[in-house]
Each structure stands twice: as C-alpha cells, then as structure tokens.
Write a structure and sequence with these properties.
Strand order of the largest sheet: 2-1-6-5-4-3
Number of helices: 3
Structural class: alpha+beta
Helix content: 10-25%
Order of helices and strands: HHEEHEEEE
Strand content: over 45%
C-alpha cells in the first residue's frame, strides 16, 4: 500500500475515534512524539503505550477532525502532512480551557515508514 493511503487511513481512523484503525499500520516498536511550541510534551514508545495514550486521548474530545492540507514525501521513508485541526473539548483542562470549548489549530505530522509500517509519528503544533 502506498504511504499516502496509509496516512489517509490513519487520519480517517483518528477522526472516527477508532484506535484499532489508528494502530492497523503501525509497527510494534512505534515511536510517537507530540511537539508543541518547539518542545516535546509527550513521547511514547511501543504499540501498547501508543494504544493506551490514544485511548485516553479519545476521552478529551466530543469531536475531533484532522483535515490534510498538503502531503509531501521528504525522502524514501518520510512523509509530512500539514493539517487543520478542529476539536471540541469533552472536559475542563488545567490550562483554563473548558468543556465545550473549540480548538482550531494548524500543525503538521511527520510519518516515518519501514516498508508499509509506520515506525515513527511526530505531531507538531
């Protein structure tokens, strides 16, 4: 399967809150980093840790949607997407955001592949 389709499948599963679908094309040794403001604020290693974090994250939102704006293959194993991100919070957060608040962000995700498996994912906002 082409990398572009693997990425689209992941994003569609993410938007559906479908954790099993998100994991479908991930390597057992996946490395995930969330980077905000230039700092890594979450890093997990391994499919079990990623699954656990993804399941927790589904409770944060009543709605969420990543829209792919562009897709660029940066080398033979890496593809970067630019996204619009929209979400509605399902709970109050310590930073002052409240249940029902809308989030609208721009960001990018960088996928690294080995064959047809995602081995690293970096979400950057």
């Amino acid at each position: 399967m082409e990398r572009e389709q693997l990425i689209r499948d992941y994003v569609e599963a993410y938007n559906r809150f479908d954790v099993a679908g998100m994991l479908r094309n991930m390597d057992d040794n996946i490395v995930f980093d969330n980077i905000s403001g230039g700092e890594v604020n979450l890093s997990v290693m391994g499919i079990t840790a990623f699954k656990d974090q993804a399941q927790i994250a589904t409770t944060y939102f009543t709605e969420r949607k990543q829209t792919i704006l562009s897709l660029k293959h940066t080398d033979e194993s890496t593809t970067e997407i630019e996204i619009d991100y929209y979400a509605v919070l399902a709970m109050d957060f310590p930073n002052g955001l409240k249940k029902g608040d809308e989030l609208k962000l721009k960001g990018r995700s960088v996928f690294t592949f080995e064959g047809d498996r995602i081995v690293r994912l970096r979400d950057i906002s």
